[in-house]
Amino acid sequence: MIYLLDLFGVMVFAVTGSLAAGRKHLDLFGVVVLALATALGGGTLRDLILGAHPIFWVADPFYLAVAGSAALFIFMAPKRPSISSSLLQSADGVGLAVFTVIGCQRAMDLGAPSSICMIMGVMTGVVGGMIRDMLTNEIPLILRKEIYATASLAGAIIYVIFARHLHMENLAALLAISFTLTLRLAAIRWQLSLPAFHNDEG
Fold first, then answer.
1. Could you give the CA distance from residue 90 to residue 184 in angstroms, rounded to a whole number?
2. Which of 57, 36, 32, 30 is nearest to 46 (CA)?
3. Cis omega (within 30 of 0) on the bond before 81?
């Protein structure tokens, strides 16, 4: 189940990268590069930090095939989806939720402490989107007012509690993905955000 979720997350993030490339009118090479960076960036950084070798997509090139195929499909589709901000953010929310769980699970498999598992979950969820946004000259979603990384952190906490401490991995994945995605979509819909820090000095 985790492997299938991982492939699904790679596909979804590759699609968001492709859609973002389409908004910037990039060529085929640019679309594929942005899709791969978005889909694989977070997991690559996670594996490097955890010392997991070989990196997941080196050990299993099928991840590259999935991401590349998603990019080609979006680029060559006869009827391309409407490339709107809401579509991109919603698709990104799905990828965020799935990759949060994948990051936690990967760290747990390597015996990392619970706190590190949560951090790796958030990192896996948000870094790919940050790379995508920076390469397309957009303000990364993690730096905008709406709840983003907080949704990932909440999902990571849920997953670690249910998977590691209650030994209910399948339920943990379902609850964590559902909660992260629901919170993220709610934040988009109603512009929910954490309290902002205001420094009036200077």
1. 8
2. 57
3. no
